[in-house]
UniProtKB/TrEMBL annotation:
This is Death on curing protein, Doc toxin. InterPro entries: RelE/ParE_toxin (IPR007712), RelE/ParE_toxin_dom_sf (IPR035093). Gene3D superfamilies: RelE-like (3.30.2310.20). Keywords: Toxin-antitoxin system. Pfam families: ParE_toxin (PF05016).
Length: 97
């Protein structure tokens, strides 16, 4: 199963092929964007339609990347599920879940 951590690692490794320093700063930027916005406005991401999950998955974009997440209201947390390049098809990537 893909995970947010694995997705960030993959993104960082790809960017590091050309610019290792930028890979680190870019991953920091994505992480900060998620933390700053979703910690205050957890429902600001668009609902993802067409996925067969019991819970409503939302998406938060940052540049050419999307972070998919759940809002766990009872626990008062946001759970980041996956981080992928926005051009990739989320349905294909998580088909085995």
């Amino acid at each position: 199963m893909p995970s947010a951590r694995a997705g960030l690692l993959e993104i960082g490794q790809y960017i590091a092929l050309d610019n290792p320093v930028r890979a680190i700063t870019f991953i920091d930027e994505i992480t900060q964007s998620i933390e700053k916005t979703l910690s205050i406005f957890p429902f600001s991401g668009k609902l993802v339609e067409g996925l067969e999950f019991d819970e409503q998955i939302r998406v938060w974009p940052y540049e050419n990347y999307n972070s998919y997440y759940l809002v766990k209201e009872v626990q008062q947390i946001v759970e980041i599920l996956f981080v992928f390049n926005a051009s990739r098809n989320i349905k294909n990537l998580i088909a085995d879940l």
